[in-house]
Amino acid sequence: MLIDISRPLHPGAPHWPGDCPTAFQLNARIAAGASCNVGQLTLSVHNGTHADAPFHYNDRGATIEALDLRRFIGPARVVDARGRDALTGALLASLSRADLAAAPRLLFRTDAWGDPERFPSVWPLLDAGLPAWLAARGVTLVGLDVPSVDELTSKDLPRHHRMDAAGLLILESLDLRGVAPGVYELIALPLRLRGADGSPVRAVLRTNAG
Q1: Which member of 26, 79, 121, 181 has the lowest number of beta carbons within 10 Å of its beta carbon?
Q2: Are 145 and 48 in contact (CB under 8 A)?
Q3: Residues 15, 50, 56, 160: which is the catalytic one?
Q4: Domain of 170: which CATH number?
């Protein structure tokens, strides 16, 4: 069974304040006499569910097409972080080092993005020491159901930089509402955009049932 954990992209979809909104239009229409319908899409690469490339926050970092696609496919663990003000190692206290290494993609379900049609203003943040702690235990990717690993007003992006220093990739704006904690297979491939600082992804979780 596949569980779609992507947020829909459409005109009027929530986007980072000041960034490029999502726009879609048909430039050719069968109804108007064209041989086919042809659409045009304009958006920021950080709209909707997306992957950050290290180049997004490090001018010498890898761009999105240079990242190893294997990092975006494989065992992933959904962690219940609802009601938490911060994301800390205590959330993972019941997991052994072997548990974390066996599903090295962690997806934090906070449910902090309450209204999917309105951009949130606050959300839980990663504890300063968490990226290095996770990397030391074999974790390679962190996904969040909120727009960023840093707060809305951040200019220095300290958590992005800590993730970079730990070698962790970032997925943001997942939709994990209704997804039970546990281990799944994640598939969240970015587009092959040369030189880009990120990319929209169609993120899904696959279970063994059905």
Answers
A1: 121
A2: no
A3: 56
A4: 3.50.30.50
